[in-house]
Amino acid sequence: MNAGWPVELHEGDVTLRPIRVRDQRAWQEVSRRNRDWLRRWEATVPPTPAGRVPTSRPTYRQMVRYLRGEAGAGRMLPFVVLHRGRLVGQLTVGGITWGSMCSANVGYWIDEEAAGRGIMPTAVALAVEHCFTDLGLHRIEVCIRPENRPSRRVVEKLGFREEGMRPRYLHIDGDWRDHLVYALTVEEVPEGMLERWRSLRSRH
User: Fold this and answer.
1) What is the mean pLDDT of each successive set of 10 residues along the chain, which is 204 residues long?
2) Pairing of strands 139-144, 103-110
3) Of 18, 46, 94, 98, which alpha carbon lies 20 to 30 A from 52's?
4) In angstroms, rounded to a whole number, what is the distance separating the alpha carbons of residues 59 and 164?
5) CATH classification for the domain delimited by 9-45+56-203, as one of 3.30.9.10, 3.30.420.10, 3.40.630.30, 1.50.10.140
6) What CA–CA distance (Å, rounded) separates 15 from 121?
């Protein structure tokens, strides 16, 4: 079981909380309105080899059931991002690995109308703080397409290191796409992730 789940995380007007089945209407409304904006960065299913049954895209309820199952098994933290109580995006801590690695990866998306207002850096800072302080993870990784400048700015603001390129890493928007790897270890933020972000915001 996942000792760090379920959990709600708060910082100012931003909240991370577990995704729920009853979020369906709000989630689908935001997703539908941002379809064109998110398509370039959204994972897709590669073509099915001849003779195999094509994989269908899961329904919202199937997605939530899968995410909740993974969370219960300690492999994932699936959050929705709220700004002043309104659903504006999603953030998932995935690939949680224990043992000698103690690492995870973070993926996220946000409503275009809410972008550029510090909401997603705050959400990422909340998630990383929870992973390092409460879960005891050692390393967090974020993989981003080189062309996705807004998403890269999120992690660069927070001090993630760029570690290099993973060629043809994920199937996105109909093809295998290269991704830049950003990473951060707990030793690199001795002041804490949230405190770092608060300090950065106060300077501006």
Assistant:
1) 84 98 97 89 77 72 96 96 98 96 97 95 98 97 95 96 95 92 98 96 85
2) parallel
3) 94
4) 34
5) 3.40.630.30
6) 12
